[in-house]
Amino acid sequence: MAKVYDVPADMLISRLADILKNEDIPAPEWASFVKTGAHADKPPQDKDWWHTRCASILRKIYLHGPVGVNELCKEYGGGKPLGYGARHHKDASGAIIRNAIHGLEKLGYLDKVEKKGRVASKQGMQKLDKLATEILKELSAEKPELKVYS
């Protein structure tokens, strides 16, 4: 069985975002006009950005867990130019990350570790690993030189 490490991140996140759209993880009503952080100039142009962010957060927690909200804010943040000087790092919005984590916890994909943050639950790991296996099989069908070890 393939793991999340074995497939390209962009393919996994886009597929997982499509799956999360069909599940019960609705975007908040303010998601259409909110910026993703102090570093951003405008709200995201993609109208399904919420599910993409949820999928990305689930993948990051799977790979690096236990992870807290503050660590994810730093990870999703970016540079903001201040005058003529160099860019300074600004964290991403904590409310967006917190709401996404709560939605993923309700689905049973994340578990809370006391004083450390969140980790992927057994159900979340299985979902990501099955999806990674499907993607790797499709990639190996396109390119036979890739080997799938099951």
Number of helices: 5
- Low-confidence stretches are none
Shape: globular
CATH superfamily of the domain at 8-39 and 47-118: Winged helix-like DNA-binding domain superfamily/Winged helix DNA-binding domain
Mind telling me the C-alpha Rg? 17 Å
Lateral arrangement of strands in the main beta sheet: 1-2
Oligomer: single chain
Give the structural class.
mainly alpha
Q: Largest sheet at a glance?
A: 2 strands, antiparallel
Task: Tell me the CATH topology of the domain at 8-39 and 47-118.
Answer: Arc Repressor Mutant, subunit A
Helical amount:
40-55%
Distance between the termini: 5 Å
Give the H and E element order.
HHHEEHEEH
At CATH's second level, what is the architecture of the domain at 8-39 and 47-118? Orthogonal Bundle
Describe the secondary-structure layout:
Blueprint: H1 9-22, H2 49-64, H3 69-76, E1 78-81, E2 87-90, H4 94-107, E3 110-113, E4 117-120, H5 122-142
Antiparallel strand pairs: 1-2, 3-4
Question: Describe it for me?
Answer:
With 150 residues, the protein is mainly alpha-helical. It has a domain at 8-39 and 47-118: Orthogonal Bundle (Arc Repressor Mutant, subunit A), CATH 1.10.10.10. 49% of the residues lie in helices and 11% in strands. The chain contains five helices and four strands, in the order αααββαββα. It has helices at 9-22, 49-64, 69-76, 94-107, 122-142, and strands spanning 78-81, 87-90, 110-113, 117-120. A two-stranded antiparallel ribbon has the order 1-2. Strands 3-4 form a two-stranded antiparallel ribbon. Helix 1 packs across helix 2. The longest helix has 21 residues, at 122-142. It is globular. The N and C termini lie close together (5 Å).
